[in-house]
Fold:
Amino acid sequence: AQSVTQPDIHITVSEGASLELRCNYSYGATPYLFWYVQSPGQGLQLLLKYFSGDTLVQGIKGFEAEFKRSQSSFNLRKPSVHWSDAAEYFCAASADRGSTLGRLYFGRGTQLTVWP
Amino acid sequence: ETGVTQSPTHLIKTRGQQVTLRCSSQSGHNTVSWYQQALGQGPQFIFQYYREEENGRGNFPPRFSGLQFPNYSSELNVNALELDDSALYLCASSYTGELGEQFFGPGTRLTVL
Structure:
């Protein structure tokens, strides 16, 4: 069965420090992969996506993610965190074919706290 | 370009009641998906509608049902509410030509007492 795992429930970093949020997926084939961010009282905003091709993808707000097939991972990174990045981050996957095409499977999320 | 909108923002119901949540999709989008996000969890796929028909369903009982209208807006109906139905319900719209990329509304917070 398809699943997405985010091992870290809560991460705290200082403003200006680098950030890496982990995501692992379990799929029969290479899925489409996404990172979303959710601020309190708001819906999910897409940060970046991976469909195929270059394994390092750039997103909005200075975020990037690297797809590693051998590790079934799609970790999110940012070189310097800003206080406004404090939010909950969700990794999601979708099948690239078949009956579950178009469904997003989400991890349970990582809550990011940024210290000033 | 208008984004995805949902109504109402918040809702309080009692166990056994029925509820209808509404979603207007983003302009140009023809597919709507609904997700349930329980507190402290990631969103879970409920179902998807395309061309006014259900096009895939997650692991939710039949008391969760939906509709999609000709203008691509959608409703989520939940009958016989249970306490565990308390959650944030998210609607996402997409266009079938852009597989997997979904745009989310702000959600409806449902509390069942």
